[in-house]
Design a protein that fits this description.
Layout lengths: L3 H20 L2 H75 L9 E9 L6 E4 L12 E4 L3 E9 L4 E5 L6 E6 L5 E6 L4 E6 L10 E4 L11 E9 L7 E6 L9 E5 L2
Antiparallel strand pairs: 1-2, 1-12, 2-5, 3-4, 3-12, 4-5, 6-7, 6-9, 7-8, 8-11, 9-10, 10-11
């Protein structure tokens, strides 16, 4: 390997000297000039072609990008249009429901739901086909058409929710008579409901509407509970009581409305 090194070095040196010598000769310079003159038009044409190719390549790439952007914008616009349509339908449905429930002047959200299971024996609870996936939460109020108070959401799953009706013994509603403004407490008895804790000197009229007063902060004001069916006044009792006639047959209910307080 060491013997070859001087030979290789010598050959490289000769090549470099030959290049330097011949590149400076008039003949080589003239040849180079002639070749440059001949090739100059071709170089110009090649440069133009290359620039055109780069230009059109850039145009094609930009067109592809523009097409992709347009497709993305179209998809986005379609999605937004669908959401607007759905929102418009929900707003329309909500307005119609509020009007049906006599709540059109109140700024509340209303959702319709179907009853899919119930306690037929006492009507103290039932199951609806809307749940947390539909925005249903515990303590939302459940009503029937006309704003008739039915109960409250007490348990939710993804697609269903359980309603405790105002007939349940755990149900307590601060109430008032619509005309005479007599305050009391609407209390569930299991299969019936009474208007309790009426002041001894106040006697509601038979047939008078009893509505939620909202004084307890748990039930929305003006929702209808029922009508005064009978009044019970006993000298041995501190308060008067009144039976409440329900305006809705719970066993015949198939659809209800859930409102957000």
């Amino acid at each position: 390997m060491n013997k070859l090194t001087p030979i290789v070095f010598f050959i490289l040196l000769l090549l470099i000297l030959s290049f330097i010598f011949f590149s400076q000769s008039p003949q080589i310079l003239l040849a180079q000039k002639l070749i440059n003159e001949v090739l100059r038009p071709f170089e110009s044409s090649i440069s133009i072609v290359r620039n055109n190719l780069m230009f059109w390549q850039s145009v094609i790439l930009n067109l592809k990008n523009i097409k992709k952007m347009n497709e993305a914008l179209i998809d986005e616009n379609l999605e937004l249009y669908g959401k607007l349509e759905k929102l418009s339908e929900l707003q329309k449905e909500n307005r119609i429901l509020r009007e049906q429930l006599n709540l059109s002047k109140q700024n509340i959200i209303v959702k319709s739901a179907g009853i899919i299971g119930r306690d037929f024996q006492s009507n103290r609870a039932f199951l609806i086909n809307k749940g947390s996936n539909d925005g249903i939460r515990n303590n939302m109020i459940v009503v029937a058409q006309g704003g008739m108070l039915i109960g409250k959401i007490i348990d939710t799953s993804y697609n269903t929710a359980k309603v405790r009706t105002i007939l349940d013994t755990q149900s307590r509603i601060a109430a008032i008579t619509a005309d005479s403004n007599i305050s009391g407490l609407a209390r569930g008895l299991g299969s019936d409901i009474i208007f309790d804790l009426i002041a001894k000197n106040r006697v509601p009229e038979i047939g008078e509407l009893i509505i939620a007063s909202g004084a307890d902060g748990l039930w929305r004001r003006n929702l209808i509970i029922g009508k005064v069916k009978e009044v019970k006044s006993d000298d041995s009792q501190v308060f008067n009581t009144a039976g409440i006639q329900m305006l809705v047959n719970f066993q015949e209910l198939t659809d209800v409305f859930v409102i957000d307080q």
